[in-house]
């Protein structure tokens, strides 16, 4: 395994790699790579949506990299620039990291889903251009809209004193274009923190652009359950949801077959 | 197992039952904590699809048998297709739900967990009794407690599967289509729904399920929805039981919907 912390030169963002070292087993194998954005309302990044997810991907034959994007007091578009640099860095290192440069996905949870979907919808506005384009997005109970169904505090922290001025610009269902990659979404209907409308609005926007999508909405379950198992409950057993545990298997299958 | 064909008295619709018979256990085994002769199982009425022109066999018996294996009682409803028109199938579905509920005790079923399950146009038939049950003026005896809708025909609007609505409405298509466009009639007393669809469905577009989910959301009705990216219309179980020749339609990743639907139905709180 290649496990390193790397500080990137331009934005100074830190990434942590969890990479299969396959040189002995199958030297020519190219794995998909997933760049993970943990959630935390743009206040912090919660641990349960980082390492346990990376480890799960690793055993599923997917290279994983966690991006420690900036939260409050950093404001938009700082995190977008960091994640863009991280994606371009991973792609530039694809060969060394046994990764397929054409299967580099971005994954995010809750506000990290907003960070991830920012890259998916706005990558073409960054100076890295095609190098930072994600080939796919996997969004778990994502913060998407700054409209009626917004997770208010995420946007307050993301925008700081530009809240009024930039609110519309970061409503990502409005940023979907023909440049947005295929997307896998999952959410719970009962989510009281980030309403399921966030995923529904994003799905409608993808549909209008003719972009492929897979979406799994479970009725029961609270916000923020990550892998929904004992590895990610972080002391709150209401996050252990046997019926939701198959989302990651379906996401892995979806990414591999894409 | 109680496997019978029953002709209902009012509408004349045929039901085919596939019911686990608790009583059959008695006498063969010594009763113990493992045996629950009073067990009440959920019951699902199955509506095969076929564009309201026919009923597809691969969405009938293989589903009933699979439900039985989950501990769910199954009844296939042989609802009328064209040239029969609305509200024939709705009335048949209403009588079928009421009949199953009235026979719950005899059939070892939970009278508060009588669900409907429909595919494609059968999803419209099942969704109709779920959403339009009050039109029958039979009271809530004909209200299903839950709906499981598989790549359902829902809307008569922009994203309609037009052929289904033409078979259902005949000459009255234009004047009646809004009246049977199900997303427009969802109310607070609509039962919870489990929906699944494929994004790539070119026959009944996924907007049908998306529109229904949004309507349920606005009415405050619970829902679970699984949309797989790939796969054609009409996958049924997406396995060898439905595509014996191993048709290229089969998508292994779409086989888990029925596990999820059975789990959802069993965990659903529908007690009154």
Keywords:
heterodimer; A: 258 residues; alpha/beta; Rossmann fold; eight-stranded mixed beta sheet; 28% helix; globular; B: 272 residues; 7 helices; 26% helix; 18% strand
Describe this structure in words.
The complex is a heterodimer of chains A (258) and B (272). Chain A has 258 residues and is an alpha/beta fold. Chain A has a single domain, classed as Alpha/Beta hydrolase fold, catalytic domain (Rossmann fold). Chain A has 7 helices and 8 strands, in the order βββαβαβαβααβαβα. Chain A has an 8-stranded mixed β-sheet, sandwiched between helices. Chain B is α/β, with parallel strands linked by helices. Chain B has one domain: Rossmann fold. Chain B is 26% helix and 18% strand. Chain B has helices at 61-69, 88-102, 121-132, 162-169, 173-176, 207-219, 257-267; strands spanning 5-7, 14-18, 41-47, 73-78, 109-119, 146-150, 193-198, 223-228. An 8-stranded mixed β-sheet of chain B has the order 1-2-4-3-5-6-7-8, with helices on both faces. In chain B, strand 1 (5-7) and strand 2 (14-18) form a beta hairpin. In chain B, helix 2 (88-102) packs across helix 3. Chain B starts with a strand and ends in a 5-residue tail after the last helix. The mean pLDDT of chain B is 94. The chains are: A alpha/beta (258), B alpha/beta (272). Chains A and B meet through helix 6, strand 8 and helix 7 of A and helix 6, strand 8 and helix 7 of B. Strand 8 (213-218) of chain A pairs antiparallel with strand 8 of chain B.
Mind sketching the topology for me?
The complex is a heterodimer of chains A (258) and B (272).
Chain A (H helix, E strand, L loop, with lengths): L4 E3 L6 E5 L12 E7 L13 H9 L3 E6 L9 H15 L6 E11 L1 H12 L13 E5 L11 H8 L3 H4 L16 E6 L8 H13 L3 E6 L28 H11 L1
Parallel strand pairs in A: 3-4, 3-5, 5-6, 6-7, 7-8
Antiparallel strand pairs in A: 1-2, 2-4
Helix pairs in contact in A: 2-3
Chain B lengths: L4 E3 L6 E5 L22 E7 L13 H9 L3 E6 L9 H15 L6 E11 L1 H12 L13 E5 L11 H8 L3 H4 L16 E6 L8 H13 L3 E6 L28 H11 L5
Parallel strand pairs in B: 3-4, 3-5, 5-6, 6-7, 7-8
Antiparallel strand pairs in B: 1-2, 2-4
Helix pairs in contact in B: 2-3
